């Protein structure tokens, strides 16, 4: 199989414009005759469903929460990038494109990234028009902050609640369409399988999470905006419900999964405090604008931070990366934090933490400015740790945060199953091996508001959709397969809870496929995951039945998929004998301990095909070409 | 620390429900209220019992999924804190916590601590937006919006839709929730063209749902984890009164409340 990424030819600056012109249009009167399923109501799914509804398509939108407004996007804190250059500091579409390709360590497609940078400006306009209360200057203009991996201020934000405000904008647009009747919303409804008829995605099987009923939904096309899979690690900054099930079941039906091992570890999270811990709390990256990161020079220095004099502090990021300092990209900041802790210089009870210190900034700017910028983050930190960051430096440690990998899509955001489109964090498309801060919100909204409305139109206009309904054999087979998994999970009634398996899987993934990886460790992990999965299917205890609200059953299905995904992540990490972005293989590093890419052998997207349970997956490579930004060793020195 | 949890258990909407008492002997003061329930649930499952159903997702106090009454207080004793961020150090060793779901006719019971809050979505759908389809926008800096105005809009926009305001209100009114959206959008120039229509539409839907009326008691704002100010209710009332005499035939129509979940997944 070869992959056709449908990349436009010719100058990159006009590529998207030319593509849009070439895409076929659906006659306005025909739009309502086309039905589209959108799974997910986050920034990607919500913006897509609303926009497709506005265009007049007949849309059904699904989410597992009780309301579309609660999608995980709501939790994003720091901001969203756009190449507006409102600050007159040298930004441009080209610079955002350049920074993103470089930040992704030259493992993303140039044409996709260029389009993203180009669309970024329209996103801000659209969101402002919806009433998103972005931060402003006294004079009334929009203001910006800078974020890791960039030397310009291009991040728009709404206090520390940017994701919430952007999602509410999309949610309100979505509810407007619900009221207009163009979109039907199905909350508390989980997609558990994809229905593929004659080689095309034509529907989904869902479970009503309140009544347990399985239903078949048929449409002309299916869009997944189902988010990332960071929860394979159990502890992550993701919402507890975030999962890979929708993507994974589509993968089992033939959609290729790309770069699963590219995961992002966020450098600034509150450290783990005990084994009851259910999730990790992010402290926005924007804190690195004013906070200085340090550890004691001496190993095992147990003095309280105010007792450690300046000369005995190591501001290691400022020391190693003088030009970016505390604002190096996430992967670099995280690896350095791990390195100093591994040397025994970590702080806090567990020694797994570094200081993020605001005392200089408070001296320079005053407490009120810091409180204005980060007040709610400081409150959150204090609520959780019972320490006052205005007085004592924060303690932070890296945590799993984002997954760059996802279902493979072409330039049209279409997966390898025709009619199945994938948006937002669920696809792999724009961030290469490392995502820059404030770029996920941008990508989700770019995909949903401005890309999919064009590309799906082309698909609908150029294909015929024979009638199908729930009685179709493929639909019935999908329902039977879902029922079989559910029945099996409920029948085992073993001795271990779902969470105990999930925790153990997460530990394996964090230890061997986390911040740094080795061939040996990955091989070991694959064996451990297989054994644990086997035990899961013999010994898990899912209480209750399948015909009402059963949160253990929901979790069990998701964890079952995480097992298979976890193994694929290790296989992918093992296959990639280089270090790039978030994927750091200890065997491949420069003399200074930086990631060592191998462009000659690994400048490709690794897209994996499913070949049945227990069979080795098939690797299909999509070569990457760089005509504009020349791959070089990333340097933030 | 040791705690006694008296938790409302109810299998389904039609079940009568009752309090069940659980004792927990080693609660770590650093864990959150939800982590405490996680620990309880693990032991229940191991004993072959059904875990307590409760809603949660982000566990960072922003998604609005979680929420229940602790000793009669929505989200428990800490101000401006949802139960997912409420750490156990705020309780005393040996204390009894009575935990029950939001009680309001407009939030029908689903199971244990889980209720149906779809009425909130229907209120938003009746005008809680700016009608601006994708592609219509002008440049973001077209409207200059003073920082004070923008900050005030943000204060109202911070609502997480958890339902604590309704649960705390003796009348089970949703005025704070509705007022927050009317204020957020009405304060901003982008929301002005629809200010009247929005107030009429949203208030009409609010009145269609079985929420009680607001009698200005103020419990809502005290329980609100985002401290939405009571003024938003005055803004709503002012906007509504001003808008009512301009009523039009093409107003946003109200929708009938739907509370049955078995209809909701049908294609
Ligand atoms: C704490 C935190 C802070 C962040 N801060 C920033 C930031 O400042 N800037 C930035 O750019 N990015 C940030 N990110 C990343 C960003 O928030 C996410 O990548 C992005 O919001 C993902 O959006 P999405 O629409 O792709 O998916 P999500 O928002 O995760 O939405 C997924 C949707 O799919 C639904 N769903 C999933 N599976 C199913 C199923 N099987 N059936 C039915 N429905 C399903 C869910 O119900 C949900 O509606 C942050 C992430 C975290 C965790």
Question: What does this 3D model show about the protein?
Answer:
- The complex is a heterodimer of chains A (637) and B (267).
- With 637 residues, chain A is of the alpha+beta class.
- Among the domains of chain A are: 265-400, Alpha-Beta Complex (Flavocytochrome C3, Chain A, domain 1); 473-612, Fumarate reductase/succinate dehydrogenase flavoprotein-like, C-terminal domain (Methane Monooxygenase Hydroxylase, Chain G, domain 1), CATH 1.20.58.
- Helix content of chain A is 37%, strand content 14%.
- Chain A is built from 17 helices and 19 strands.
- Chain A has a 5-stranded parallel β-sheet with strand order 5-2-1-9-17.
- In chain A, strand 6 (189-197) and strand 7 form a beta hairpin.
- In chain A, helix 14 packs antiparallel against helix 15 and helix 15 (519-539) runs antiparallel to helix 16 (551-575).
- Chain A is globular and about 75 Å long.
- The two termini of chain A are 42 Å apart.
- Chain B has helices at 33-46, 118-125, 147-157, 164-168, 175-187, 195-208, 219-223, 231-244; strands at 3-9, 18-24, 69-70, 73-74, 96-100, 109-111, 114-115.
- Helices cover 31% and strands 10% of the residues of chain B.
- In chain B, the strands form 2 sheets. Chain B has a 5-stranded mixed β-sheet. Chain B has a two-stranded antiparallel ribbon with strand order 6-7.
- With 267 residues, chain B is α+β, with helices and mostly antiparallel strands.
- Chain B folds into 2 domains: 3-110, Ubiquitin-like (UB roll); 117-246, Fumarate Reductase Iron-sulfur Protein, Chain B, domain 2 (Orthogonal Bundle), CATH 1.10.1060.
- The mean pLDDT of chain B is 96.
- Chain B is built from 8 helices and 7 strands.
- Chains A and B meet through helix 3, helix 5, helix 6, strand 8 and helix 11 of A and helix 1, helix 2 and helix 3 of B.
- The structure holds flavin-adenine dinucleotide.
- Residues 39-45, 62-65, 71-73, 75-80, 162-163, 190-191, 225-228, 237-238, 242-243, 245-246, 282, 401-402, 424-426, 438-441, 444 of chain A line the site of flavin-adenine dinucleotide.
């Amino acid at each position: 199989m070869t992959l056709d990424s449908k990349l436009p030819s010719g100058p990159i600056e006009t590529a998207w414009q030319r593509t849009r012109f070439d895409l076929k249009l659906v006659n306005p009167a025909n739009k309502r005759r086309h039905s589209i399923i959108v799974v997910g109501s986050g920034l990607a799914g919500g913006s897509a469903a609303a926009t497709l509804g506005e265009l007049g398509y007949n849309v059904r939108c699904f989410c597992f929460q009780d309301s579309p407004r609660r999608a995980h996007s709501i939790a994003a804190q720091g901001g969203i990038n756009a190449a507006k250059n409102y600050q007159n500091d040298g930004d441009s579409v080209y610079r955002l494109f350049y920074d993103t390709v470089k930040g992704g360590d030259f493992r993303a497609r140039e044409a996709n990234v260029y389009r993203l940078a180009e669309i970024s400006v329209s996103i801000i306009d659209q969101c402002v028009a919806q009433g998103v209360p972005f931060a402003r200057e006294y004079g009334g203009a929009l203001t910006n902050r800078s974020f890791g991996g960039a030397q310009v201020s291009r991040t728009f934000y709404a206090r520390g609640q940017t994701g919430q405000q952007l999602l509410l904008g999309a949610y309100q647009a979505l509810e407007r369409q619900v009221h207009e009747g163009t979109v039907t919303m199905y909350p508390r409804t989980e997609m558990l399988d994809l229905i593929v008829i004659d080689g095309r995605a034509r529907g989904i099987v869902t479970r009503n999470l309140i009544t347990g009923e399985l239903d078949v939904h048929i449409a002309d096309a299916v869009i997944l905006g189902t988010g990332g899979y960071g929860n394979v690690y159990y502890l992550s900054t993701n919402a507890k419900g975030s999962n890979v099930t929708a993507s994974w079941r589509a993968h089992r039906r033939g959609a290729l999964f790309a770069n699963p091992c590219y995961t992002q570890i966020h450098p600034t999270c509150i450290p783990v405090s005990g084994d009851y811990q259910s999730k990790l709390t992010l402290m926005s990256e924007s804190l690195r604008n004013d906070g200085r990161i340090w550890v004691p020079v001496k190993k095992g220095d147990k003095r309280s931070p105010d007792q450690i004099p300046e000369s005995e502090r190591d501001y290691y990021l400022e020391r190693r990366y003088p030009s970016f300092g505390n604002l190096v990209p996430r992967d670099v900041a995280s690896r350095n934090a791990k390195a100093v802790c591994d040397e025994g210089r970590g702080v806090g009870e567990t020694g797994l933490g570094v200081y993020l210190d605001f005392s200089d900034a408070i001296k320079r700017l005053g407490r009120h400015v810091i409180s204005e910028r980060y007040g709610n983050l400081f409150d959150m930190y204090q609520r959780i740790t019972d320490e006052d960051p205005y007085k004592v430096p924060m303690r932070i440690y890296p945590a799993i945060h984002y997954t760059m990998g996802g279902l493979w899509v072409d330039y049209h955001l279409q997966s390898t199953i025709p009619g199945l489109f994938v948006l937002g964090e669920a696809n792999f498309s724009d961030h290469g091996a490392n995502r820059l801060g404030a770029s996920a919100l941008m990508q989700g909204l770019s995909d949903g508001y401005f890309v999919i409305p064009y590309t799906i139109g082309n698909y609908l206009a150029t294909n015929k959709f024979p009638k199908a309904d729930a009685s179709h054999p493929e639909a019935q087979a999908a329902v039977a397969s879902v029922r079989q998994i559910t029945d099996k999970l409920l029948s085992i009634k073993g001795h271990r809870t779902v969470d105990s398996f999930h925790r153990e899987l997460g530990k394996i993934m964090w230890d061997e496929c986390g911040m740094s990886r080795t061939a040996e460790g990955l091989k070991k992990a694959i064996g451990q995951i297989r054994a644990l999965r086997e035990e899961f299917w013999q010994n898990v205890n899912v209480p209750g039945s399948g015909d009402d609200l059963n949160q253990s059953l929901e979790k069990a299905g998701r964890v079952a998929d995480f097992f298979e995904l976890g193994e694929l992540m290790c296989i992918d990490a093992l296959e990639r004998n280089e270090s790039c972005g978030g994927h750091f293989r200890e065997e491949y590093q420069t003399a200074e301990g930086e990631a060592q890419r191998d462009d000659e052998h690994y400048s490709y997207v690794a897209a994996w095909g499913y070949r049945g349970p227990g069979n080795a997956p098939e690797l299909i490579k999509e070569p990457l070409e760089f005509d504009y930004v020349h791959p070089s060793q990333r340097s933030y020195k | 620390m040791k705690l006694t949890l008296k938790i409302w258990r109810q299998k389904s909407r039609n079940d009568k429900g009752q309090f069940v008492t659980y004792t927990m002997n080693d609660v770590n003061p650093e864990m959150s209220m939800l982590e405490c329930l996680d620990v309880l649930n693990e032991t229940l499952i191991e004993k072959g019992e059904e875990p307590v159903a409760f809603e949660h997702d982000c566990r960072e106090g922003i998604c609005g999924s979680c929420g229940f009454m602790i000793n009669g207080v929505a989200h428990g004793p800490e101000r401006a804190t949802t139960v997912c961020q409420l750490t156990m150090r705020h309780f005393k060793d040996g204390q009894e916590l009575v935990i029950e779901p939001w009680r309001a006719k407009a939030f029908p019971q689903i199971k244990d601590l889980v209720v149906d809050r779809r009425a909130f979505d229907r209120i938003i759908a009746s005008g809680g937006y700016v009608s601006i389809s994708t592609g219509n926008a002008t440049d973001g800096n077209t409207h200059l919006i003073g920082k004070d105005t923008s900050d005030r809009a943000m204060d109202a926009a911070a609502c997480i839709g958890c339902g604590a305001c309704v649960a705390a209100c003796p009348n089970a009114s949703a005025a704070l929730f509705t007022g927050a959206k009317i204020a957020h959008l009405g304060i901003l120039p982008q929301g002005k063209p629809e200010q009247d229509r929005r107030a009429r539409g949203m208030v009409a839907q609010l009145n269609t749902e079985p929420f009680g009326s607001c009698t200005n008691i103020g419990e809502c704002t005290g329980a609100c984890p985002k401290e939405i100010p009571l003024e938003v209710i005055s803004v709503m009332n002012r906007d509504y009164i001003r808008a009512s005499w301009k009523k039009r035939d093409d107003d946003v129509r109200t929708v009938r409340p739907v509370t049955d979940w078995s209809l909701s997944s049908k294609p």
